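All the exercises in this workshop are built on plain-text protein records. An example says more than a description, so a record of this kind follows:
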Amino acid sequence: MVAAGAVVFFSGCGASGAQFSQFATPKQDRGLVYVYRPESFVGGGVYYDIHVTNPSTPDFIAGKLVNGSYVEIDIPSGESEVWGKTESKSSVTLDVKKGETYCVKGGVGIGFLVGRPNLEIVDMDTCKKEIVETKLTK
């Protein structure tokens, strides 16, 4: 009975959008950033918003990173900080080039009261292998 309840509870914690199929082509004067989070039991119920900060646009929330999800972000060229926060903040800084695509892998580590975000820049080969298992989130 408890196991059945856990399955029902955790089934609502993952992404429910379209399965990742391919990388989009960046707009000519912008770059694309994919932030993805592979499915994991550890921290499975924890989610966090993905923020983008750069000189061209005010801080904005690009999407919510849940277990097994990805967010596609259209970003102007130049330096951008991509970050997430629960009880602590994790961020990466990207020097976005026009027409380029970048990948940031998200995860959840152990926190004091709630899981803490963990973001890291990954190479395209790693990203291509892992992002195919994720679904779009908003």
